[in-house]
Amino acid sequence: MSVVSAIKFIDPSAIYVVMYGDSRRSFYFTLEEELKEKFPEVQFIQMASSLENDSSAITEDILPHFLQSRREVGIIVATDTLVGPALWDLCFTNSSGSCNSSLDTDGVFVSANRRYYDRSFISGIVVFRRNESSLRLLEGKLNSLPEEYSGPCVDQVIDSGDWERIPCVTTLRRGRYHETFHDHITPELVHSGNSPLHRLIRTVLYDSPEETTPRKLDQPAIPNDVHMIWFGKREFHFIHYLSFKSVLTVVNPRRVFIHGDVEPFGVYWDRVKPDHRVVFVPTKQPTEVMGVNFTDVPMEHKADVARLEILRQYGGLYSDFDVFWVRPIDHLRYYDADVIASYDMAPHCIDFPNIIQIGVFLARKGSEFLKLWYEGYRNYDLYRGHWAAISMCYPYKIYERRPERVLIDNHLQVVWFNGWKRFIPRWLALRDLDKVELSLYDAYAWHVPDMPFDLTDETQLDGYLNTPDDTILHKILRFVKYLPDPARPK
User: Fold this and answer.
1) Tens digit of each residue's pLDDT (9 = 90 or more) over 386-443
2) Which of 426, 444, 438, 449 lies closest to 474, judged by CA?
3) Whether pLDDT at 120 is above 70
4) pLDDT category, 179, cuts 50, 70, 90?
5) What pLDDT shows up at residue 130?
């Protein structure tokens, strides 16, 4: 955000981005690639950090590079600083105490919190001209800067006023905005909210101060159809029957399309197959995706790709066979969104603020978001051992760039984590899990990818329900067991 704000509001003839250490080696933090795509003129300089924990600051090892350049005017912006539209309206104070509001002044202009000076770096903005006095000052110790060079960047929580009057904002990454953002500022934290800081950041990222969340329409944008995937020759067990029954009864779709290469079989399949809404669609497993050979990849990855292809072609709701529905979702189909989804949690995406859960999601026909997501599989071989990379992490990156096309509703589904032996609702912070008792209708669906006990036939569930257990899992399974028989003859 810092670099983009500098380009947008300073409009420099050249811009240099200093990269520290291994700052580029991350699946999430792809700063260099993203900036080069949007601003080809940006130049990158790789350096080792002289400050162990503060690569965001303007440090003394950066300044020599700018002093060696042939440019007459230099502007240095620390990466914890956001440039605002009112930067050039500032009244900088020079060494004589007089006010200057242009670059025609003799000296260095610093916007920084002085408590950082004793650590020999500045957090904020330095503006200087290439002349004898400014060079002498820059070549000296930064902690010797006089009081009159302290600057006017905003260094407090902004909750009122006009965003267009903000010159610059410092300490974005130092917890100063804890009351507003609780942690590092990421794009998703500013998709809604009308404080001046929210509006400034949206202008920097999306060229508009307006909120980026999808609006609700008068007519449904997503068809009332459900799509499920069944690859391989397998028996249709009781757990699948319960999930399927909840789809037919609670979601109550126009059609349920099962896309598979082999039709399910078994006594529980025979109980749902007669329903006139059930349609088995012969579907081959993907063998090539965006030029990548998918012949030998795990079945789960093939199913991930297939659901993107299917929902982009037809639109509707995708649901895994281990998802149990307890609330209808008709109203969600009215949102003007390419995709409606919820967050998940996975140890493989630790750099990411959040990731997308794809066991349940809705999409409109021809979704541009799903097209971009599908195209991400051209990089599948780069992350072949990283099962969640393209399936769950990559779509979050798309969401950050195109938030107006995605509705995140963390009540859409709640996922069971076997290692924790509990459901993890993503609308709660992990530290608050034990403070809240979940109720059956807190979610539209409950997703149990690793059922903690065998559930291949009905007697196993009866045994579990006859125990004194009264957990949320017990309530969910009791609810779906006693749903009415959905079978409607063809």
Assistant:
1) 778 889 999 999 999 899 999 999 999 999 987 788 999 999 988 898 899 999 999 9
2) 438
3) no
4) very low
5) 58
Nearest CA among 49, 36, 338 for reference residue 212: 338
Q: Which of 390, 385, 438 is nearest to 413 (CA)?
A: 438
Tell me the residue type at 22. D
Q: For 169, what's the count of Cα atoms within 13 Å in the CB-facing half-sphere?
A: 27
Provide the strand spans (E) within 137-179: 168-169
Cα-based torsion angle of the residue sequence 477, 478, 481, 485 in order, rounded to the nearest 10 degrees: -130
Say how many Å lie between the first and final Cα of the chain, rounded.
57
Can you read off the two tokens belonging to residue 399? 């969401």
Q: Which tens digits make up the pLDDT trace of 358-391?
A: 999 999 999 999 999 999 999 888 776 677 888 9
All residues at 6 or more sequence positions from 230 whose CB lies less than 8 Å from its CB, including other chains = 258, 259, 260, 262, 263, 264, 321
Residues 140, 339: Cα–Cα separation, whole Å? 55
Q: Which of 14, 32, 488, 84 is closest to 277 using CA atoms?
A: 488
Q: Which two tokens stand for residue 185?
A: 């500022």
> Global pTM?
0.85
CB atoms within 10 A of CB 223: 18
Residue 486 makes CB contacts below 8 A (sequence gap 6+) with 245, 248, 249, 272, 275
Picking from 404, 434, 420, 453, the residue whose alpha carbon sits closest to that of residue 210 is 404
CB atoms within 10 A of CB 119: 14
Q: Which one is predicted more confidently, 160 or 247?
A: 247
Q: Are 367 and 407 in contact (CB under 8 A)?
A: no
